[in-house]
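sry for the spam today, last one i promise. C-alpha cells for design, 79 residues
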C-alpha cells in the first residue's frame, strides 16, 4: 500500500502516518473542518457586551469630538 500523503494549497507534500490519515479521513467523512480557534481572551469576553450600547459608536463619537478640538486649536494658532 502507498504511503498516504497530504498536499497543501502551496503544493507541499506531507507524508502521513496511517493513524493521521484515518483521523483526517474520518473528519472529512463527518464534514468537519479544522476551524482556527479564537484566542483565549476573545473567548473569555465573547458576548460580554451583547445588548449594551455600541462601543464602536462611542469610539466614533469620541474621535469626532477630538477632531473638532484639534481643528479649533489649529484655527486659534493659525489665525
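last one done:
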Amino acid at each position: 500500500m502507498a504511503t498516504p500523503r497530504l498536499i497543501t494549497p502551496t503544493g507541499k507534500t506531507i507524508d502521513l502516518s496511517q493513524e493521521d490519515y484515518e483521523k483526517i479521513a474520518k473528519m472529512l467523512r463527518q464534514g468537519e473542518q479544522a476551524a482556527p480557534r479564537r484566542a483565549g481572551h476573545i473567548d473569555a469576553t465573547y458576548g460580554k457586551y451583547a445588548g449594551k450600547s455600541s462601543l464602536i459608536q462611542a469610539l466614533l463619537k469620541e474621535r469626532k469630538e477630538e477632531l473638532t478640538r484639534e481643528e479649533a486649536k489649529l484655527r486659534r494658532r493659525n489665525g
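Residues 5-34+51-78 form one domain. ok im logging off now
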